[in-house]
Write a structure and sequence with these properties.
Length: about 190
């Protein structure tokens, strides 16, 4: 039986928000729908979830550092360029205010931002941060910059935040993120 995302290639970028653990569900759900999934992570993301776990869930080596060269693998040692050319869509989950700013400014010091800068595939970003950070004019400006360039911001939503407060800043649920990927790639099938 075919799945909605059979044959599609999705890059999941993981940011350094507490919500990084939800990347595991995003990767799992995308694969259940038939997508081939590869993962890139910021250094901060590795504080919340390990590359080993995401490698097990995706079935592929995870880009967790710009200088992670594996001598056993052929290629030029620039995973961000390979990922940028490979993916049909890039989805950045648990995007912190810092990561959104770096994406908007075109900074490229980690696998997520370097891949995004080199990539021409559509960009979906799922923010996750405290409401004061999300509402700050700087973050709103960076999100607007990404949107103006054709990116899509998914969320954040109202809910319980890492601080224990209830407000807007919670990452959209994984099923909402996967539905956005599905809509982009196959029209919502």
């Amino acid at each position: 039986m075919t799945q909605p995302l059979d044959g599609h290639r999705v890059l999941v970028g993981v940011g350094g928000s507490v919500a990084a653990f939800k990347a595991c569900q995003v990767v799992t759900d995308l694969r259940r729908e038939g997508a081939e999934v590869k993962v890139a992570m910021t250094d901060a993301a590795t504080r919340f979830v390990t590359p080993t776990l995401l490698r097990a869930l995706s079935g592929h080596r995870v880009a967790a550092g710009l200088w992670d060269d594996d001598p056993a693998e052929a290629g030029h040692g620039m995973a961000h360029l390979e990922l940028a050319a490979w993916c049909e869509v890039q989805v950045v989950v648990a995007a912190s205010a810092d990561l959104i700013a770096r994406l908007a400014l075109g900074l490229a010091a980690d696998p997520v931002t370097a891949t995004a800068l080199a990539c021409r595939a559509p960009l979906l970003v799922a923010p996750a941060m405290e409401s004061a950070m999300w509402e700050h004019p700087a973050t709103q400006g960076h999100a607007a910059t990404l949107t103006a360039r054709g990116g899509r911001i998914i969320g954040p939503v109202y809910g319980r935040l890492a601080s224990g407060h209830e407000s807007t800043g919670r990452m959209a649920d994984p099923e909402v993120i996967v539905a956005a990927v599905r809509e982009l790639l196959v029209g919502g099938a």
